[in-house]
Here is the input.
Amino acid sequence: MRGSLLLLYTTFLPQTIQGDVVKDVSRAWEEIWSMPLERTFSADFEEYISNENGIAEIDIYIALK
Here is the structure.
C-alpha cells in the first residue's frame, strides 16, 4: 500500500525532463539550481512517469515562495 502526501499552500514550478534517468535529471537539477527562483526548499520532488528503452519521462516540481 502506498502512502499519501498532503501539501498545503505551496506553489510548484514543474519541469519535465525526457532522457537518461541519471545524466539528464542531474543536468536538470544543475539548471534549476542556477535559476533565479524564490524557492522555499521545503518540498521539491520528482515524479517518474515512464522509462521505455532507456528514455525516461520525469516531472520535477520545485516549491516556490
